[in-house]
Amino acid sequence: MEFALSLDQLRAVGEETRLRIVALLRHSDLTVSELVRCLDQLQPRVSRHLKILVSAGIVAPYQEGSWRFYRLASLPPWLATLIDELAGDDLEPDLRALQQIRAERAEKAQAYFAENAAAWDAVRRLHADDHIIERAMLDIAPATIDRFLDLGTGTGRMLTLFAERFDHGIGYDASPEMLAVARTNLDQAGLRSITLRRRDILKPDQVAAESADVVCFHHVLHFLAEPERAMAVAAEALSPGGSLIVADFAPHTREELRDEYAHRRLGFGSDEMVAYAREAGLELAHEKSVAPGTPGGLTSMIWRFDKSPSLIPIPHDGAVHA
After folding, report:
1. Which of its termini does the chain have fewer beta carbons within 10 Å around, N or C?
2. 302 in the same domain as 202
3. Alpha helix locations (H) across 163-292?
4. CB half-sphere exposure, 65, CA atoms < 13 A
């Protein structure tokens, strides 16, 4: 069976366009239209090749509202090595196109953040009951924290919320407008033991490894095209035995949030978040659902993922604690 499966996979990638698709999907989940741009090919041709890759179990589609994404489902080590050896200068145009798409995503999000920085807390309250979410985050977080890192800090709300628990807080955000608002808010709260920095939270080299005991994402991941990369960066930033606290939306179908609020993802299912965490070396410790505070609002989810205090992974027993 393993031989037959490997042979099917080898046949599936044994064509130029399909090999290019797999190479691109190693960098990011993409829609058909984004793959069309990267490959500079017609949509029917790209869709046909995707169908072959899906049938071979290499690529998996998933639907999110009206957007259909594709991601790598299975890439055995031998196939990854083969692609690395074959992927050279011929793939450079594809990767440059992917970088352009990423830049456009970032520019759109940054424009939204700059425009809404001053009213960001009010905008966020349109979606969920912040008081209940924040209480739930505090309930599952450690009681005392040495170093607290807030990735995508926005207006600095999480730094203010957790200030009584940590000795030193750090907030990273890519938007200078957001950081200016955060600094004002922290100054008004009289908080001094906090460092704010402009950083791209998707780049590991901009976030120091093992630099925090608790890392936090507060309704940040749905803005990102590659939330799994952000989870991996957060895991690297955690000290052994540290905890990652994540609050974000449960899956929903509010398509208008893509254009009105620059949402890239329409929420996350628990299975998806747990898979991201495990891939990053983290284990689920707590999970809680928070119902919307107003009719038509969005349900939020809060997760705590822990990093093993040793180099030996802790087996997951399937237990979920609210």
Report:
1. N
2. yes
3. 176-188, 227-237, 256-261, 270-279
4. 17
Q: Digits of tens for pLDDT over the chain (322 positions)?
A: 466 666 777 788 888 899 899 989 887 778 899 999 999 999 999 999 999 999 988 898 877 556 788 888 877 777 778 777 765 667 788 988 988 887 776 666 566 656 665 555 555 555 567 888 899 999 999 999 999 999 999 889 999 999 999 999 999 998 887 887 788 788 778 887 788 888 889 888 889 888 899 999 999 999 898 899 999 999 999 999 999 999 999 998 888 888 777 888 999 999 999 999 999 999 999 999 998 877 777 889 999 999 998 644 444 333 333 3
Cα 3 to the chain's mean position, in Å?
Answer: 35
* Cα 83–Cα 9–Cα 15 angle in degrees, nearest 5: 60
Q: Could you give the CA distance from residue 154 to residue 159 in angstroms, rounded to a whole number?
A: 10
Q: Is the pTM of this model over 0.70?
A: no
Sheet of strand 59-64, all strands in order from the earlier edge strand to the far edge: 30-31, 67-72, 59-64
Helix/strand/coil for 24: helix
Structural domain count, the chain: 2
Same-domain status, 198 and 284: yes
Asked whether the beta carbons of 290 and 89 are under 8 A apart, the reply is: no
Residue type, 246: V
- For the chain, the distance separating the N- and C-terminal CA atoms, rounded to the nearest angstrom, is 41
**Amino acid identity for residue 45 in this structure:** R
CA angle centred on 83, ends 79 and 86, rounded to 5°? 135
CATH code of the domain in which 237 resides = 3.40.50.150
